[in-house]
């Protein structure tokens, strides 16, 4: 009655390396950065230990550190000094993200792919991702689209290599694609936050980016965590509108979505390992309840195994260091 087939034969020593199906490399990582127009020194954040908000004059150094670790790309989020109802600090040539892009490109040139998050929530005084009809308490879809187009164009003109719209407005990919094309920016790719769920896992990010909502929540535009077929439709639409890379967000609680999206569309697929996923691991590690490095590696490897080609993660530098 002894087992004839022994799976354990392949688990011992170097043979484990030969049969490994998934590998993680620094090439798969995208490093999120926060540049804050209101500060002059680096500020740490309470809910995301290890993640800082940077003044403009520190972004190039930080980006260089990521480049030196072999990380090919970063994504920039801006915290403006001035917020208003439209989010008008999102699209000015001298606004904070545009300046940060120029600083980083000047320092690193082609060694670092600079992606910009295109959304209005950090720039609006009400904290929503689009324009709002205050009387009705409604986020206005179509009126928001030209503002997103304008923002994307200003990022690309400042030197951004790729734009990443995250606001979940219907038609935003098409609107941004035409705005870029009309401005001679045909070669700027779009990474769409295509299947973005209305998730409580964004909590720590909203502290860091000061982008919390003052009324309601984002459930009228972000997806219901209960839905999976709907994610396929969102992704399909974004591909038809011109998305070059599609994203699923969050990552760990949505591995099934990553798997389905990759299998169905065979497109370059990104996953966002979001702030809450990061904070949970950090908090448990600080209590001595989890081995941080091992859990970080296992988590990111699992996201890759599910089908993601690239991962946006606050662990990017730590992971790259560990892989070196
Ligand atoms: C902006 C945006 C958010 C995140 C990325 N881009 C916040 C949100 O939708 O509330 C979340 C990232 C994270 O939690 O790490 N729209």
Give a structural overview.
This protein has 324 residues and is of the alpha/beta class. It has a single domain (24-323), classed as Aldolase class I (TIM Barrel), CATH 3.20.20.70. Helix content is 37%, strand content 17%. The chain contains 11 helices and 12 strands. The protein has helices at residues 15-18, 59-68, 96-108, 141-158, 172-182, 203-208, 229-241, 255-265, 275-286, 292-306, 316-323; strands at 29-36, 43-44, 52-54, 73-79, 113-118, 131-133, 138-140, 162-165, 191-196, 245-249, 269-273, 310-313. Strands 1, 2, 3, 4, 5, 8, 9, 10, 11 and 12 form a 10-stranded mixed sheet that branches. Strands 6-7 form a two-stranded antiparallel ribbon. A hairpin with a 4-residue loop joins strand 6 (131-133) and strand 7. It is globular. The chain binds ligand PBG. Ligand PBG binds next to helix 6.
Strand-helix topology:
Elements: H1 15-18, E1 29-36, E2 43-44, E3 52-54, H2 59-68, E4 73-79, H3 96-108, E5 113-118, E6 131-133, E7 138-140, H4 141-158, E8 162-165, H5 172-182, E9 191-196, H6 203-208, H7 229-241, E10 245-249, H8 255-265, E11 269-273, H9 275-286, H10 292-306, E12 310-313, H11 316-323
The chain binds ligand PBG.
Ligand PBG binds next to helix 6.
């Amino acid at each position: 009655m002894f087992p004839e087939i022994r799976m354990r034969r392949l688990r011992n020593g170097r043979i484990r390396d030969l049969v490994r199906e998934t590998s993680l490399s620094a090439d798969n990582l995208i490093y999120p950065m926060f540049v804050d127009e209101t500060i002059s020194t680096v500020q740490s954040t309470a809910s995301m230990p290890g993640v800082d908000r940077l003044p403009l004059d520190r972004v190039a150094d930080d980006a260089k550190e990521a480049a030196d670790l072999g990380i090919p790309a970063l994504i920039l989020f801006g915290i403006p000094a001035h917020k208003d109802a439209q989010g008008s600090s999102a699209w000015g040539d001298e606004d904070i993200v545009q300046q940060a892009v120029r600083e980083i490109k000047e320092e690193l040139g082609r060694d670092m792919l600079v992606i910009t998050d295109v959304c209005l929530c950090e720039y609006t005084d009400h904290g929503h991702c689009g324009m709002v009809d205050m009387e009705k308490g409604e986020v206005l879809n179509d009126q928001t689209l030209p503002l997103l187009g304008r923002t994307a164009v200003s990022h690309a003109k400042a030197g951004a290599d790729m734009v990443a719209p995250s606001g979940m407005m219907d038609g935003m990919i098409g609107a941004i694609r035409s705005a870029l094309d009309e401005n001679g920016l045909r070669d700027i790719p779009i990474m769409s936050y295509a299947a973005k769920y209305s998730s409580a896992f964004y909590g720590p990010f909203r502290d860091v980016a000061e982008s919390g909502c003052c009324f309601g929540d984002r459930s009228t535009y972000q997806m219901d965590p209960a839905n999976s077929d709907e994610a396929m439709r969102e992704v399909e639409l974004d591909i038809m509108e011109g998305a070059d890379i599609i994203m699923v967000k969050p990552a760990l609680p949505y591995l099934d979505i990553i798997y389905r999206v990759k299998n169905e569309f065979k497109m370059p697929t990104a996953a966002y390992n979001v702030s809450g996923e990061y904070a949970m691991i950090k908090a448990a590690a600080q209590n001595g309840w989890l081995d941080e490095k091992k859990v970080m590696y296992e988590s990111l490897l699992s996201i890759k195994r599910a089908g993601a080609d690239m991962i946006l993660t606050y662990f990017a530098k730590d992971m790259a260091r560990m892989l070196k």
